[in-house]
Write a structure and sequence with these properties.
Blueprint (H helix, E strand, L loop, with lengths): L2 H28 L7 H32 L4 H33 L9 H27 L1
Helix pairs in contact: 1-2, 1-4, 2-3, 3-4
Length: 143
């Protein structure tokens, strides 16, 4: 395996693990903990997802750099591009809407649930699939 491809594969699986652990494990479970109100859960979630998204951005850069210097199959590049695009959609379009909604809830407002949350989760599912495909293609191309 070329060093660039190895770095891209490692960063891909690290990114995948972080998304699975935070988005699909921590996020839903925190609201089940005793004494965690909606406001406390939202406050924690904002901090955690801000940190996650910063780490994801760094890992996306590492994956892209690894793909650029490695000998990589076009399919792996396309899959990685899908993951990066989903992250961009989340950061540029969905997170601002979620932040506005959580600002209102934290200020005590009530109202309908945000559809932006469903869009974020949908993008997470697509991103997870793209990261799995990217990582598997990087490993199988080296075999």
């Amino acid at each position: 395996m070329h060093a660039g491809s190895a770095v891209a594969a490692a960063a891909t699986f690290m990114w995948l693990g972080m998304v699975l652990a935070i988005s699909f494990l921590e996020a839903p479970l925190k609201f089940r903990a005793p004494g965690v109100t909606l406001q406390v859960g939202l406050g924690i979630g904002r901090l955690v997802f801000r940190a996650l998204n910063a780490c994801e951005a760094v890992l996306a850069v590492v994956v892209i750099a690894g793909l650029l210097v490695g000998r990589t199959a076009a399919a792996a590049v396309v899959a990685a591009a899908v993951a990066v695009a989903m992250l961009a959609v989340q950061l540029v379009f969905v997170r601002p809407a979620l932040t506005r909604r959580s600002d209102r809830v934290l200020a005590g407002a009530d109202g309908p649930r945000s559809r932006a949350h469903l869009v974020y989760v949908g993008a997470e599912v697509v991103k997870v699939a793209a990261l799995i495909v990217t990582g598997v293609l990087l490993f199988t191309a080296a075999a």
